[in-house]
Design brief:
alpha/beta, elongated, 8% strand, 5-stranded mixed sheet
């Protein structure tokens, strides 16, 4: 054992060996006090191990219980020292705390991330990829569990919900989205009616365009279009807002004050998404029908005949199935936006990455869920 920092509850210690291969084992608290005491000796010992071995050093971080910014700076300095001397270094047993502290250094172009992993062949790289996938899945399942708990708690104790924030978010995500939803829904109704009427006119069935447009909007296109617009507007906004708070350490400040970010930040946005999604879908359906009715005027179908045909074509199952889709899509969009925001790393660039990831992930999940609903409704006869 080379050194031990006494006087701490979990003292920092390191053990350097050259057999069977150059290895440096770190344990305890890698904080500013340990770095101040062991900065020089530890870096010299690492360089000695590199000279003793075949130009490669393994650093075992499995025993590190705590790591702050100073500890990450020490690990980064070890990497640079060994790289300058022509040696490779790879970290083993790196915990989540160490990985997050090292993330800003990994973003620097002058540093090669995970250099030792690439130098050891495809198998360590595969294991590292599996580890990242597992950690991502763990964080997502944890988020779903915490969100479910928060929603259940809000149902049992409604007074604990921040209804003021929920209504503010609902206004921004719903009411302020009406202009763009109106434009897209109107144009969608116009395009559907015009393209359908051209084909139907060959058979004298222009009146049945109302059936086609109404069922398409209420069952499929209305909720789908609303969800994509909600992902582009509100999902991206949720990710950017929470991501900026994460970069500015405001989320950590909430935890320090004893406030749960899930209840304080995420729950109002998710409840707002659940509230506005079906309302926006209904509004989009109505505007789309108006656009289709305007087109059908040019084909000799009066307003009264068009809307009478719509009411005879639609059933309760068409309305309910569309609203169920809208509610699920709203939950997915709001949840993914908040999750990507909480997963934001360090630096301004990470906020943009989180926003992009939120939109892309939301759209992919919307399309996948839409296909699942199509199969489910078919087998249920809805």
């Amino acid at each position: 054992m080379d050194s031990t920092a006494a006087g701490a509850e979990h003292p920092f210690e390191y053990d350097a060996t050259a057999e069977p291969g150059p290895r440096l084992r770190l344990a305890g608290r890698l904080d500013v006090h340990a770095v101040e005491r062991h900065w020089g000796p530890l870096r010299r010992r690492a360089r000695e191990l590199a000279r003793q071995g075949a130009g490669a050093v393994s650093v075992d971080l499995d025993g590190v219980e705590y790591c702050d910014g100073a500890g990450a700076a020490l690990l980064h300095a070890l990497e640079q020292d060994l790289a300058t001397g022509g040696a490779e270094v790879w970290f083993e047993g790196m915990g989540r705390m160490v990985r997050e502290q090292l993330a800003p250094y990994r973003e620097l172009e002058s540093v090669e991330p995970a250099r030792g992993v690439h130098g050891r062949g495809w198998w360590p790289g595969l294991l590292d990829g599996i580890d990242r996938v597992g950690q991502a899945a763990h964080s997502q399942f944890s988020f779903v569990g915490e969100l479910t708990r928060a929603i259940g708690s809000s149902l049992r104790h409604p007074r604990q919900v921040r209804w003021g924030d929920t209504l503010r978010v609902a206004e921004a995500a719903g009411f302020q989205a009406l202009p763009i939803v109106s434009l897209i829904a109107f144009l969608l109704g116009v395009i559907l009616a015009f393209q359908s009427a051209i084909a139907m006119r060959q058979f004298g069935g222009e009146i049945f365009v109302a059936n086609l447009v109404a069922v398409s909007l209420f069952r499929e296109l209305g909720p789908l279009m609303m969800a994509i617009l909600l992902a582009g507007r509100s999902g991206a906004a949720f990710a950017a807002e929470i991501g900026t708070m994460k970069v500015n350490e405001e989320v950590n400040a909430l935890k320090t004050m004893g406030l749960d970010p899930m209840r304080f930040l995420v729950l109002p946005k998710v409840l707002a998404g659940l509230l506005v999604a079906p309302l926006l879908a209904l509004y989009a359906n109505m505007i789309g029908l108006i656009g289709a009715a305007v087109v059908m005027q040019g084909f000799g179908i009066p307003w009264v005949a068009f809307f009478n045909q719509v009411t005879s074509a639609l059933t309760l199952s068409d309305l309910v199935s569309g609203l169920v889709k809208a509610v699920v899509f709203g939950l997915v969009v709001a949840g993914v936006g908040c999750l990507r925001g909480l997963q934001t790393g360090s630096g301004a660039a990470s906020v943009g990455l989180s926003t992009t990831s939120a939109v892309v992930t939301s759209i992919i999940l919307i399309v996948v869920l839409d296909g699942v609903f199509a199969v489910l409704f078919y087998h249920l006869g809805v």
